[in-house]
Design brief:
Elements: H1 5-19, H2 22-37, E1 54-56, E2 62-64, H3 65-69, E3 74-78, H4 85-96, H5 98-103, E4 107-112, H6 116-125, E5 131-134, H7 139-143, E6 147-149, H8 152-160, H9 165-169, E7 175-177, E8 179-184, E9 190-196, H10 205-213
Parallel strand pairs: 3-4, 4-5
Antiparallel strand pairs: 1-2, 3-8, 6-7, 8-9
Length: about 220
């Protein structure tokens, strides 16, 4: 099944622009531009080895990356949180192709800094049947070089919108992972990466699936 995540994104962005004041849009664009020009959140590159990790899922079970790799390749995607509409659209798009991921011998893991309670809410809201893991304090995201600090002016905008990221994450750092997706081969080698400072620019899940299918 081919997902149409980008189409959903374009529709949402159009509605967002129509409903959001220009000064707010400019501040949000500045935050993305500044992040792109910084040394934060660059991620790991294709050909590098993925660090192992053990993280809890939404139901309290621990998932280890290398244990999953013993069974087959893994699609690993980092998302900001269930409060982010782009993340929810992405997660639902991955759910649509989950059966094909499994048919290809792979597994799907999604990671965010949300605490387990909020991860459970995200999982249930989107009816997700893959691993949704809680990376409190962004410890694993930091190993993947994905963490960035939200600027104060953006924090203020989020608070005005009722997006209390600190409450979702259970800490007061206001740090997030950039949106990143990896395909990791069974020996731990990253064979595909898509890392963007702009959270509206993400890998199309159907295209990631095609990479997975070619991974032996």
């Amino acid at each position: 099944m081919e997902t149409t995540m980008r189409k959903h994104y374009e529709e949402y962005i159009s509605k967002f622009k129509a409903a959001t004041p220009e000064d707010v849009q400019q501040k949000m664009k500045k935050a993305i531009d500044d992040l792109e020009q910084s040394d934060q959140g660059k991620g790991l590159d294709k050909g590098e080895k993925a660090p192992n990790f053990n993280l809890p899922d939404a139901k309290g079970n621990t998932v280890e990356l290398f244990k999953q790799l013993e069974k087959g390749p893994v699609i690993l995607t980092f998302y900001r949180g269930g409060w982010c509409p782009y993340c929810n659209m992405e997660l639902r798009a991955y759910q649509e192709i989950l059966s094909e991921v499994h048919e290809a011998g792979g597994e799907l893991i999604a990671v965010s800094p949300e605490n387990p309670d909020h991860s459970l809410t995200t999982s249930e809201k989107n009816e997700l049947e893959f691993h949704v893991l809680s990376d409190v304090s962004n410890e694993v995201a930091n190993q993947f070089n994905l963490v960035y600090q939200l600027p104060d002016y953006l924090v203020d905008i989020y608070k005005d919108k009722g997006l209390n990221v600190d409450q979702h994450n259970g800490d007061e750092t206001w740090t997030l992972p950039v949106s990143a997706t990896y395909v990791i081969d069974t020996d731990g080698t990253i064979v595909y990466e898509y890392t963007k400072a702009d959270y509206k620019d993400r890998a199309e899940p159907s295209e990631v699936l095609e990479v997975l299918k070619k991974t032996k």
